[in-house]
Design a protein that fits this description.
Elements: E1 4-5, E2 11-16, E3 26-30, E4 34-39, E5 45-50, E6 60-63, E7 67-68, E8 72-73, E9 79-87, E10 93-102, E11 111-115, E12 126-130, E13 134-139, E14 143-147, E15 156-158, E16 161-162, E17 166-167, E18 175-182, H1 184-188, E19 198-206
Parallel strand pairs: 1-3, 2-4, 3-10, 11-13, 12-19
Antiparallel strand pairs: 4-7, 4-8, 5-6, 5-9, 9-10, 13-16, 13-17, 14-15, 14-18, 18-19
Length: 207
Amino acid sequence: MATARALFGQAQRININTSGQSDSPGIVIGDTDTISFYNTAPFPVEIHFICANGPVFNDIAKIATNTSSTAQSAQKTQITTDYMIINVNTGAAQGPYSIEVTINPQTPAPLLIPIVSSAPPANETVISIPTNGWLQFNLDVAYALTWSNSGVFPNGTYGPGMSPAWQVPAGNQLNTLTYSLNSNVLQATAQIGKAAKVGGGTVKIRS
């Protein structure tokens, strides 16, 4: 399935289904598009956006059943943000889901994952990007990066600083990857408080 995409300059509505899940888990929109959420779940929901270098969109406090949120324009472009859908009544969360905002889909628009002491932030342990989406790490030291599924993103040593921005190759729709990070630097300096040596996370590719 191709990545869901709005026509540039158009309104993109994301439907929340009766289970409280997004019917558009990985979308690509243009920088002049707007987004809104329509809630068909039998309970009110809130939307919480997750973006280390955002915000791209503002959190939405409450969307009642059979109600649409106010449309929002992106505050940044060439960037990907994740979001969670939260049941206001119970606190149960669905996601993460992703929105890529771009002027040119062939130009990097990554979701950024900051890594400190081998680990991403707690709210980015599991992240999502669209089919054909982009991913990038900001690493505090040098790491050996290893992926569970070969041929999607490259293994290698990266950091400190920004890794390359990697795009999902064609043919990886509905894929889930895990990555591990190992640092000799952190092993050597564990005595000064950087006890974490090996960490990692999960990347969901969704269309």
